[in-house]
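Quick one, tokens below:
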């Protein structure tokens, strides 16, 4: 797992002590934790968790920009729902990445990919457990400052729908640094 020091070295403009929470739009499907469990679902969840662990290991090998817990919210219908608090990572990777619309030439597949991944904290300032945010940034993604401590990120999801996430930071400087970093990275991202 990448340390705060290595993340700060990768992107010195981003403070390693940023804090935020996460939310999700009302009307979305309930979490698996609130639904009754059955053996098939539990087995599928275990396989998903194993896949996430492998994905996490691959992501840790990618160039990362780790930040401390942040509060994040998402909406699709104008209402906000909080998803939780946890560490946020900006993951960068080069290689064969395709757009949701399917890359048709080698240039599209070889461009840099940037993802935002956040896991819910198990304890205050503890490690992340459940993935609550995992999406890709595109050139067409949009980053805006709503206030000095609030940043929204609107992006195209892999099913070609759009989603808006609201990140709340502990300090205004951290929000500003986060926005600046994303704007720089989005210039290097591929188009949808």
């Amino acid at each position: 797992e990448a340390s705060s020091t290595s993340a700060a070295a990768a992107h010195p403009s981003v403070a390693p002590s940023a804090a935020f929470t996460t939310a999700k739009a009302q009307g979305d499907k309930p979490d698996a934790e609130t639904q009754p469990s059955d053996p098939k679902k539990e087995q599928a969840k275990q396989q998903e968790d194993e896949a996430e662990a492998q994905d996490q290991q691959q992501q840790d090998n990618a160039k990362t920009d780790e930040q401390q817990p942040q509060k994040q919210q998402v909406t699709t219908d104008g209402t906000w729902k909080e998803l939780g608090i946890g560490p946020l990572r900006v993951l960068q990777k080069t290689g064969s990445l395709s757009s949701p619309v399917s890359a048709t030439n080698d240039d599209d597949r070889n461009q840099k990919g940037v993802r935002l991944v956040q896991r819910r904290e198990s304890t205050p300032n503890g490690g992340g457990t459940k993935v609550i945010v995992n999406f890709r940034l595109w050139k067409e993604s949009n980053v805006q400052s709503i206030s000095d401590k609030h940043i929204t990120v609107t992006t195209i999801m892999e099913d070609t729908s759009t989603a808006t996430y609201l990140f709340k930071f502990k300090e205004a400087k951290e929000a500003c640094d986060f926005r600046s970093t994303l704007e720089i990275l989005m210039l290097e991202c591929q188009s949808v």
